[in-house]
Amino acid sequence: MTRVFNFSAGPAMLPEPVLEKAREEMLDWNGTGMSVMEMSHRGKAFMSIAEAAERDLRTLMEIPDNYKVLFLQGGASAQFAMVPMNLLRGKKRVDYVNTGAWSKKAIEEARKYADVNVAASSAADGFNSVPAFETWQRSEDAAYLHYTPNETIGGVEFPWIPETGDVPLVADMSSTILSRPVDVSRFGLIYAGAQKNIGPAGLTIVIVREDLIGETLAGTPTMFDYKVHADNDSMYNTPPTYGWYLAGLVFQWLLGLGGLKAMAQINERKARKLYDAIDGSDFYANPVDPACRSWMNVPFTLANPDLDGEFLKEAAALGLTTLKGHRSVGGMRASIYNAMPEAGVSALVDFMADFEQRKG
Ligand code: PMP
Predict the structure, then answer these.
(1) Which of 28, 166, 293, 357 is 20 to 30 Å from 142 by CA-CA measure?
(2) What is the number of domains present in the chain?
(3) Range(s) of the domain holding residue 303
(4) Nearest atom in ligand 1 to 152's CA
(5) Which residues of 215-225 are buried (b: 16+ CB within 10 A; e: fewer)?
(6) Is 136 annotated as contributing to ligand binding?
(7) Are residues 167 and 77 in the same domain?
(8) Complex-level ipTM
(9) Closest C-alpha among 271, 215, 203 to residue 239
(10) What is its main location (predicted)?
(11) Does the beta carbon of 192 sit less than 6 angstroms from any atom of ligand 1?
(12) pLDDT at residue 329 in the model
């Protein structure tokens, strides 16, 4: 068996020890005689798995007690609608910051429910930076401000957290959650699809300050009401049990590594290695303002795009897969989430240098 270094933006690599543990427990979880997939979500065994996962996530992110942690379905995309449906709370206007493809999707969906003010945008420089906070034109009466701390396609990451005072700050952390410590108390709501840094696709995590929930827009489906999920410990209906279990194994793995501070050091090192390789060459380029380059998603282009196909083919033959850039951007994209080993980044950098030497 050979496992590859998979640079996919998501679903992405999972830590090997997590997959091994899951394999070990596949047929018989802890003497129950069944796999986690076959358990009642209301039974004692699964309840213990669910509680441990939440407890470990709370420890990892230092989530304050006045925040609910929800284990939901529908992906981050469902949150694009759930956020306005739950957080408008009688208001009409919301502020959004547009830093690229995922911000735009969130904005388009919010427009169905609210009067959206785009408070800031980095469109003018091709979405290669983060708009300076002093330039943001925020509304007086915004129900919340939404932004995307890490744009998965553009590879742009906020190096700071906006200060919005009494206006709840909402963040789509799909591609940055658990990559470094964050001060959860600065946020009203954080959401993330699981398939990058949390676990398998099918699970979405929402962390929400409890005073913000309970007043939904008229017509909100029951399944879209955070309060319903909070009051039922995310078991109003059948939750994505296996994803929840695997997320718990990932949280255990992170705790074993030393938590998010330790993970951040590794991530910074991995990202620096790759950006240094790109910047140190005339053959590769990354257009993003160095102050806000993503640690997780690193897009880069080759000086001669006619070589893209060859680059991808040779990389794949070496076990470096899924490096093709997003169709809207072209070139390459290396997603180097928590589970990408440092050896994977080293192998990529070595291949890039070798390819340049032969073809550049
Ligand atoms: N937001 C961001 C930042 C993403 O990267 C993605 C997925 N790539 C989404 C939202 C959409 O997530 P999902 O497919 O889970 O709905």
Answers:
(1) 293
(2) 2
(3) 259-359
(4) 5
(5) ebbeebeeebb
(6) no
(7) yes
(8) 0.99
(9) 203
(10) cytoplasm
(11) no
(12) 84
